[in-house]
Amino acid sequence: MPPKGPGRGKLPVPLPKDMILKDTEGKTWRLGSQIGQGGFGLIYLASPQTQVPVEDDAVHVIKVEYLENGPLFSELKFYQRAAKQEHIRKWMNLKKIRCLGIPVFWGSGLAEYKGKSYRFMVMERLGQDLQRIFEDCGSRFKKEIVLQLGARMLDTLEYIHENEYVHGDIKAANLLLGYSNPHEVYLADYGLSYRYCPNGNHKQYQENPRKGHNGTIEFTSIDAHKGVAPSRRGDLEILGYCMLQWLCGKLPWEQNLKDPVAVQTAKTKLMDELPDSVLRWDSPGSSCSEIAKFLASVSGLAYDEKPKYQVLKKILLDGLESSGMHYDGPLEFSAAAACTRNHCAAKVPKV
Fold first, then answer.
1. Which residue is catalytic, options 23, 155, 169, 189?
2. Can you give the residue ranges of the Protein kinase domain (predicted)?
3. Residues 328/152, Cβ–Cβ less than 8 Å
């Protein structure tokens, strides 16, 4: 279980630049500049070359939180149990895919500074997040990009699900391009990841209003609105909502985000009235038919049912065929910017 304590949820006092950290394997890492922060933690550039200062083009980062905080603990457990590099390589070979969108985990450990205990994780450095790119493109992606991203995330989610976990918080802000290769996209932030099927035993369906509406309100699943533990169908439903927003610029419930019950009602109506509900929300000049089919297939899943990932992926790939693009080809976001703000929906707030 994640640790609990009086300091849980606090942003930590920053660690000094050039501090040396030692991970559980005995490897040492030097801290560079702080480059970001999340809800409960800080992110630094880092390098295993501890004798020299960390350069701005370092390819490692270290995420730091107070020891008693929960999110980094949850993320660490995911990487240790489900994201070992040898397992990922075997999976990629088995599935014949070129890239799997899970960042490389390099190690973890504990540190002390000014009487405080810290937990840290060493990760592959990633590039820009898709939320920022989405906003730069007038809060709309062209259809080919949406289908490419959707198909790649299906590959990633299938791997995560096969390893007994669900992500629970898929959104553009948690999708990052590669730092070394900006044509790759990675699903990051496993702080809300959940082991839905420990040792092969799927969690039971049970509604709990006290735990309702967990996740990011725009995208979270109907199950999550009801306080049901996350499952595979929930991750796929969230991905469907993301694709709908990316293509159309907004979601039907965006004007009610401060009212979770209204959002839940609108999502239920959308899922109950598929495919027409999505087709009515169509993007001008760009059909939502693939997303309608995708969500219709997801809506038919039982809570503990294993999705047919290849069937879902084929829905998206069939939509790419006519454009002549490959789902693992270059991500051409610049072309999406041709959709100017005059022709697009209003900017969606960063989530």
1. 169
2. 29-317
3. yes
